[in-house]
Amino acid sequence: MTKAGEREVLTVERANGGAGFLMKEPLISPEERGEHCGLFARVTLKPNCELGHHEHHGETETYYILTGKGMYDDNGKAVPVEAGDVVFCKDGDGHGMKNTGDEDLSFVALILKK
Length: 114
Hints:
Blueprint (H helix, E strand, L loop, with lengths): L9 E4 L7 E6 L3 H4 L3 E9 L4 E6 L3 E9 L1 E6 L2 E6 L3 E4 L4 E6 L5 E9 L1
Antiparallel strand pairs: 1-2, 2-3, 3-10, 4-9, 5-8, 5-10, 6-7, 6-9
């Protein structure tokens, strides 16, 4: 078990070439994730910050939007997202995310390996 406020929050500058920075809060340890889960974390983007476009090979990634509004890059197609939305990047595809709102954009990111 982990508790809010006790987990380490990592700051990543220009993630995948994106503007600004993101904050990544792993929700469980690598040992708890096991061999098929590459990431289970809360990611936060401040206004005008972004996670640059990147591809997934041998894995998928799902985002569950918790707060804020943004623009999801779905293989080069811009898709507006907001709290409650879920987006999925299948194996071999690419994606990214930009905070286009005036509050934090926060989402749970889950990477599952094949």
